[in-house]
């Protein structure tokens, strides 16, 4: 039997198997030669003390003990070409994992995606970055893999159901992600590696007899006597099915408008909104690791911070160490920020959304839009930012200390946001209550993280697509829409997920519930 141990070691020991073996041998009072193999089960960084340590959970195998490298394999997917059909709208993590689960259960998914495949999508990302041209169907939010494809690919979630999380991580490994994601406490994949994994998932769906339709936008949902009949696409094509898993993400405003127009029950949902802050990564490393230089054995440091300001939470969101700020608008006439990073997180800057929780009462000025009030609040800020920054994909930007002192920054250095920035007093972008909270909040952040509150940090506005501004309500047990039979609101856009992993888990759950009613 291998011996399971929890140990804490210096980063250089964790990074070197010989040193690790020596450390373990000493700890267990054995000779290094007696250790046959060390399997690392979990790894996390403990940066609470001055000398940063690595926590490891290991299995030590002694000579003569048998061990097998565990190999993660794909489930036994069936051929579903002639099986009953379910429409899955949206090929984000929720839609793709719903489709895989349907196949596992012997049902044929027809995945309908407005955007292009991962390769075609790249050209449109170039166009928004270089020329400020926003393709309303193909951008950082829309296209194969959804909003998660060209992201940081952080794979952690607040979900307490470890089994669900591990199942998704294992599937990602089986589709080509590094097995390290099963070990790291805060795993991530990176923008350079995600597209291939997504493409392999799509190829598997097609190989098993599922269908994936790109550049096909759903423009109407057919409902008769409160039961789903199918969808209509932008070309007027009708695709019939009695079940739809609707996984269109938090940015599909036309879908929210369509449901509202068709009097399908939807609700306004609070979300969070603010700015994306960019610091030099070396500064964040110094703060988080209490050192002058990070050295070669520690990864670029992440951070996570939350404060209560005027009774509201202000917190970091989707922090990207060694990352880049991306233009994430989905329509012309608006600017939106978010962040991504390559797998090595080797860019010189660290960025994070810094957002304030909103309440339904904040949407009162937009009350005439009913369930779409939050969405209109969000849209108005994105459009204002676009206007203030010069009506291109440039974003309004301000140095952090200048922002807290309502002072227009005299210059903005080049940041990682490729379309560029315009110096704007960010108080003009947001309602007064939000500006006031953020001004106070940044000063407070500086007290917890010494060095964080600095004019070397550049704020980009707005960070507005943190979660869906609308909920599509569903029954807790059946996951079916409260009023429409056969409609399964799914993933982040419906208000049941926040992030890649939780969206994928929700996709699987909806698929399981959907199939239960088909037997
Ligand atoms: P989405 O991924 O939004 O997918 C919805 C899909 O539906 C899209 O592909 C869209 O094109 C399609 N669609 C919309 N309307 C229609 C229609 N009418 N017809 C057909 N198709 C339609 N999360 C993390 O966990 N970790 C991260 O590091 C991370 N980084 C991010 C970085 C960026 C730049 C962005 C934009 C997001 C990031 N996120 C991250 C958030 C994460 O991507 C989302 O939470 C997740 O993708 C939600 O999954 P989903 O399937 O519910 O929706």
Automatic annotation (TrEMBL):
The lineage of its organism: Bacteria, Pseudomonadati, Bacteroidota, Flavobacteriia, Flavobacteriales. PANTHER family: FAD/NAD(P)-BINDING OXIDOREDUCTASE, FAD_NAD(P)-BINDING OXIDOREDUCTASE FAMILY PROTEIN. Residues 85-116 form the FAD-binding domain. Residues 213-250 form the MnmG N-terminal domain. It comes from the Bacteria. Transmembrane segments: none annotated. Residues 270-466 form the FAD-dependent protein C-terminal domain. InterPro entries: FAD-bd, FAD-binding_protein, FAD-depend_C, FAD/NAD-bd_sf, MnmG_N. GO terms for molecular function: FAD binding. Keywords: FAD, Flavoprotein. Its cofactor is FAD. The keyword Protein biosynthesis does not apply. Pfam families: FAD-depend_C, FAD_binding_3, GIDA. This is FAD-binding protein. It comes from Flavobacterium enshiense DK69.
